[in-house]
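ESCALATION

Customer reports they have been waiting on this structure for their group meeting. Please prioritize. Original submission:
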Amino acid sequence: MGLEINGTWAGKRYKFEEMDAYEVAKLFGVYEQLFPEKGKLRGVVQFVLDPSKVKTVKGQDRQIKQERLPCTFSGKKGGSTISIRYFDTKSVSMNEKGEEQTNYYPRKIELTQKTTSLDREKNVSKIVFLALYKVCGSSPFYNSRDRATYSLKDVIKETNTYIDVAMERIEFQQSIIKMNINVLRTRAKGIGVSNVDTLKDKTVMAHVLMKLEAAEMSGNFAAFKKKFESDYSSIRGQVQEALDRGRIVQVTGGGQFHYDWDAHAPSDGRICSVQRGHSPIEYLFDYMVNNWAMHSNNVKLANKFEYTIPDRLLDENEKEEKKEKKSTKNCSSLELIQEALRFSMLTYDHTTKSVKYINKKGVLDTSPLVAVPFTDWNQAFAKELDGNKEMRNKLTSKINGKRMFLKKESKKEVVS
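Update from on-call: job pushed to the front of the queue and completed.
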């Protein structure tokens, strides 16, 4: 088993010289690729057929036909022409004219599998020959204008790529763990983690990491990372925060949904009107992304306003203390309204110029609670609540019910 080369390469003339396979690999620059660790040649080298040579039959990849390669080829590069021959055995015989001739065996190499695996120790010459053959897509003699028959599977490159991706995943996971918790909460909202305001810090982090794990298992790590780090995710999270705080409110008018700034937000007036046929919340997110330069400062200012914080991040003693100080029973009417807005239970209907409840399906109640002007409607409604015990008790009951529901849902998510 060996290799012979004939021709000129790098200014040197070779005349049917039999050469060591390792030296041939070094001469044509494929040694490091084929034998990356000197003295550690165990394992296999793989050559993979081009997809054009394989077809799918009932879900299985099968080779169309055997590839039979002559055991000699000529290649050109940089003005040099060289011929390389591979053989297992050779013998000398006399031809009909009584002249000596050299016979080489085999005359052709057959590739009978989609992937051909060759032992590094037992098939050195064959490996080098196939790696140099001009129909090999990774050969220095390959002409890119032609279609490759097969290519060398670069195990080292694939391994390095795997390691790089694994390191990227670890670094990304660590960045999530070390992220400022307020930023993480906003990002969590941006990627669709539900009920963030009812969850403790570690639970929010756990939900984000579970979404990361699910993305990795489905092969969507890169897409998840891009989404998590994107401006879209950040903006969506900040807008959701403003919604949760009641600084952006959904209203109806003219048979259409609209989003307005709350009377206590740093801006006033309409943000956008939802076009019919669109999901209101998704329309708002897309609108804000496309018009972020116009609204970014107002959203950031709105999110700095204090608001009623639910029972998250509190130990049992703190919860008891909060119950005494900030239970719905002891909250001011304005605080109750802010809590109801955060839970998307209330809205201002511009059509009837009144405050209305939003039911569990997101539909407005037909009966208005009270008619008040839009300007400072929160304050006006708060005064109505102060003077109407029955109305206040009903709103308090709805808020408490919503709190209990969200706590139960939060526990279910953690268990699952």
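Sent to customer with the following note: Residues 306-326 have pLDDT under 50 and may be disordered.
Escalation resolved.
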